[in-house]
Amino acid sequence: MEGNEWIDGYLNAFLEIGSDVHRNCAPSSRSSPKNRVGAEETRQVWRVSRYFVEEVVSKFEERDIHQSWAKATVRRNDKIQSVRLENLCWRIWFERRKWKRIESERAQGRAARERGQRDAEEELLEDLSDSEKLELAEANSSSSSGSGTKKKCMLRNLSVLHSWSDQERGRNMYIVLISLHGLVRGENMELGRDSDTGGQVKYVVELAKSLAAMPGVYRVDLLTRQICATDEVDWSYCEPTEMLCCTGGESSGAYIVRIPCGPREQYLRKELLWPHIEEFVDGALAHIKDMAKVLADQLHHHLYHGNTNGTTPPAASRELVWPQVVHGHYADAGYAAALISGALNVPMVMTGHSLGRNKLEQLLVQGRQSREDVNSTYKIFRRIEAEETCLDVAELVITSTKQEVVEQWGDYYFGYDVKVDRVLKIRAKKGLNCHGRFMPRMVVIPPGMDFSNVVLDSETAAIANEIHGNTVSLPTSPKMDPPIWGDIMRFLHNPHKPMILALARPDPKKNITTLLKAYGECMLLRDLANLTLIMGNRDDIDDMSAANASVLTTVLKLIDKYDLHGQVSYPKHHKQYEVPAIYQLAAKTKGVFINPALVEPFGLTLIEAAAHGLPMVATSNGGPVDIQQALHNGLLVDPHDDKAIAEALLKLLADRGLWLECQRNGLKNINVYSWPEHCRTYLSRIISCRTRHPEWSTEDSYSNEVELDSSLHDSQEISLRLSVDGERFQSYGSVTNGKSSITVEDIKRFVEKYAQSHKKNASDVPEEAKSSELGTITTTAAAAATRWPLLRRRKNLLVLAVDNLRSHELVRDVVIAGRSYGGKSETGLVISTSLTASEVQLGLKAVGVSVLEFDALVCSSGAELYYPVASGSSSERDEQKGDPSSLPLLSKDLDYEKHVEFRWNIEGMEKTLARLFELQNGRASGIVKEAKRSNSRCLAYQTASRNSYHGMKIEELHEKLRMRGLRCHIVSCQNGTRLHVLPLFASRWSALRYLYIRWGVEIPNMFVCVGKSGDSDHEMLSRGSHKTIVWRSKRSQEEDLSSGVDAASNSEELLAAMALFVHR
C-alpha cells in the first residue's frame, strides 16, 4: 500500500497544480504585460506536472495504479477533484499498460537480435587473430563515441569522385530507377497533392535527369505505375513514356516509363498497391528485356559506324545491354526491384526514404490505434517484410544520414546489424570465409539539389560571387516582386521585420505547434521578427485528413490564444515554382529558416534554405545533424523544448555577426549537396558492385542457327495429338459481348462447346502415348536437343503447379488441354512442384503419362530446372530406384543453378539450421533432414508438427536466419509437413520468369494451374501478369463457380478458362 500512497500523493499534487493554472490563466488578459510572467509560470507548471506523471508511469507497477483507480472509484463523490482523480487514475493506468507492453516487445526484439548477433560473432571470430579482434573492438568503440571519422570518410570519398569523369567516360551504362506510388511526371509536379506525391517524387525525377547528364551513363529509365483514371488525375499520367532529357543518342537520356498494373482506370494509394506489384514486375521485365536489345543495336551501330572495310559484324556478336543496377525507392518499389534483380541477376540498390518499423512504433506509442488497426490501415507488416527482403537482396542501401543507418536500419531490422557487418568486413579484408553470411553495404549519400532555380537577392548574390570567385553565374532577383510576396505580407503589420520561415506539411511529426508556442510565449522574439508558416495547400480544413486538420485547427487556436494577428502569416496556397521566391523573401529580410520536426530523416528544405542564403535552426534528431556538420550554417535544438527553440532563434536573429557567418558558411559549402556531386558519389558506388547479368545466350543469339535436332521432332511425334482447328477463337468470339467481366453462364457455354468439339479427339488418343516409359536423370547435355528445348518454339505455356501428380484425371486433363490449345506445337507443358525430379517421374509413371509430354520440370520448390530429353547415352544415367534403362533422360539447366546461387552457402546454412532446430532450449526438435530430397540448392526437412518448426513459424525462422546474416527463401510445403530452405532467388514464381527471359515465352501467355490451397508460396505463384486457373475437385464445383473465380475440373473447362483469358 505504500506504493499507492505515493501514487495518490503525486496525482493529487498534479490536480492541484492544474487547478491553479486554470484559476490564474484568464483568456482576456493573456496578452497583457502582467501575464507575460504568467506564461513562464504556465511553462514551469507543465514541466512539474509532467514530472509527476512520468514518476507514476515509470516507477510504479500496473497493479498499484489500478488499485489507486479502484479506490478513487469507491470514494467518488460529487466534488470535481474526486471525479478528475478517478479519470486521471484510469488514463494513467491505461498508459502504463501500453508502455509496459511496448517495452516488453522492445526487450524481446533486442534480446532476439542480441542472441543472433552473438551466434554470428562467435562463428565469425573463431579464426581471427588477436590483433584483428582488437581492430574490431576499436571500430566498435569509435562508432559509439561519435563522428570523429566523419571528415576523414568524406575526404576519401571526394578523392574517388574527382576521377569519375576521366576514367569512366567510355562506359555506356543503363540504369533503372523505380518509384511506384504517387503521381510522377517531369514537369509541373503536383507535390503535396496527397501523401504519396511528395519529396520522393521530386527526388527521383531530378536524380534521373542528373544521372543521364553524367559522362558514362547512356540511358536512365524511371519506372512508375501507369494511371489512366482521367476523372481523378491528369491525362499525362497515362502516357506510356515521357522524355525527361535527351543526351544525344537515339534512345539516350532520361525517360519516365509507365507500366500498367492493377486497375488501369483507378488511382490507388500506396497501401493498396501491394497485390499488384508482381504484375508491375512482369511489365518491367518486358520493358527491360526489349530495351536491352534496342540499346545493344544502337551501341553496336555506334561502335562500328564508319568502319573502313564497309562490313558490319554479325548480330550474334552483340552483347545485350542489361541494367548496371536496378534501384528501388521506398518499400514497394524496393520489393519490385528485388524481384527484378532475381529475374535478371543484376545488382539491386535500395533507398528507404522512410521505414515501416519506425512508423509502426510511433503509431503504437501514440496509443490511438492497436497493432491490428495500424496494419489494416497502412499494411505495415507487408511493408516491413518487403523492407527485410530488400536487405536480403540489395548490394547497396543508400541513406541520407549516418543516423538512418545506425538508429533506424541497425536498431529496427533483422537484416542489418552494425557489429556483424564490421566482423564481415574484417573477414573479407583478410580473405577469410564468411560462411555464407552477408550484410548489405550502407552508403550515406545526401540528396542532391538543382541550384539552377535558386533566386538570390542582390546582396546575397554578391556574397555568393565573392565566395565562389565569380566562376558561376548566379541569377539575381527580378525587378518586380513575385506575387507570393504579397500573399505572405498581407498578414503582417510590419513585413520588413526579419522573417522566421517554416515550410512543412501540417503533420503532427513536423511539430509546428511547438514552434508557434515558442514564438507566442517569447515577447522579445515577437518584437524582433515575424513568423511565416507555409503549410501546404488547402481550400477547406474540413476536407483535409483528420491529422492535418487537427494541426491546422490547433495553429489557428494558438494564434488567437497568444493574439498573434499581424505577426504570423499562413497563406492557403502556393505553387511549387514559387518556393524559391519564398526563401528569397526570408533572406531579404535577414530572416532564419527553421525545421522543428520531432524527427527529420534528412531535411531537404534546410539545404534549399542554405542555398538561398538563409541560416537555419533545426531539430537535433536525424538528418539535420549531418547537414550542420557539412554546412556549419546554424544551430540545433531539442524539438520538445520550446524555450530552447526561442532562444536559438533570438541568438541568430539578434547577433548580426553570427547571422552573417552562418550565411557565408552555407553559401560556401552548399556545393556538397549539388546534383553533380551526388551523382559522382552515386556512380562511384554502383560501379563497385559486383557486375552481374544473365550469363546465358538468349533466343536472339540462335536466330540464325540450324533447325532443332530431329530427336526433338521424334519426341514431339509421340505426344498427344489433340489439336483443334484454327477457327476456334472466331467461333467463340461473341461470348464476352463487350463485357468487362465473365459470368458463370459464359463459362458453361464454353464448356459445352469445347466438350462437343473435342469429345472425338479425346477418344482417339493413342494407347502408346498413354503408357510411354519414363527415364533417368542426367546433369549434363545428353543430346544436342538439350540446347534447343521445345520452349523456344512455344507461344503459350500451361503450368501444372501441384504436388499431387498421382491423380490420373488431373494430369491427363492438363496434358489434353495443353496439347489441344493453339494447335500441335503452340502450347508447352511445365510441371512446377515441391517434389524432386525422381518423384515427378515416378508420379507420372504411376498415371501412365510420359515425362516427355512436358517441356520443363521445376522441382524442389524452384531449386532445380530440368528439360526432358528424348535420347541419350546410358553411360550418362545415374543409378536410381526402379529400372534405369526405362527412364528418359532429364537434362538439368546448369545456368539456372548458377542463376539462383546468389548469396547461397549450403554449409553455413545447414550448420545454423542444425543449431536452431536441435539445440534451441536443449530440446529435441522433432525435425529431421531428408537427405534424399535435399540437393545442392535445397535443404529439405520433415517435421512432425504441421506448419511449426521447433515451435517456430516460417516468419520467426526467417528472422533468426536474417539476424545471423544468412539469406534464403523458405517454403513450407506438402500440407506443412515439409520445409524447404532454398537460395534467395530460387522459387517457382521466379523459375517462370527465368523461362521468359531465357527462352522467350511471354509471361501473359502462361497459364498457371494451381489448387485451391497449397504451399506457402501458393499466393505468390498466383500473382503476376500470367493467367491463374484454380483446379477444383468435383466436390467444390458449385462453390467455385458461384464465387466467379476462374476454375476448372476437367480438360474442357480448362480449355474454356484459357480461351476466356485470351478474349479478355
From TrEMBL:
Catalyzed reactions per annotation: beta-D-fructose 6-phosphate + UDP-alpha-D-glucose = sucrose 6(F)-phosphate + UDP + H(+)
InterPro entries per the UniProt record, alphabetical: Glyco_trans_1, SPP-like_dom, SPS, SPS_C, SPS_pln
E.C. code: 2.4.1.14
Annotated pathway: Glycan biosynthesis; sucrose biosynthesis; sucrose from D-fructose 6-phosphate and UDP-alpha-D-glucose: step 1/2
Every Sucrose phosphatase-like domain range: 891-1041
UniProt keyword annotation of rRNA-binding present: no
Pfam families: Glycos_transf_1, S6PP
Gene Ontology biological-process entries: sucrose biosynthetic process
Source species, domain of life: Eukaryota
Record text on subunit structure and interactions: Homodimer or homotetramer.
Protein family (similarity comment): Belongs to the glycosyltransferase 1 family.
Record-linked PANTHER family: SUCROSE-PHOSPHATE SYNTHASE 3-RELATED
Protein name per Swiss-Prot or TrEMBL: Sucrose-phosphate synthase
Organism for this UniProt entry: Selaginella moellendorffii (Spikemoss)
Gene: Sps1
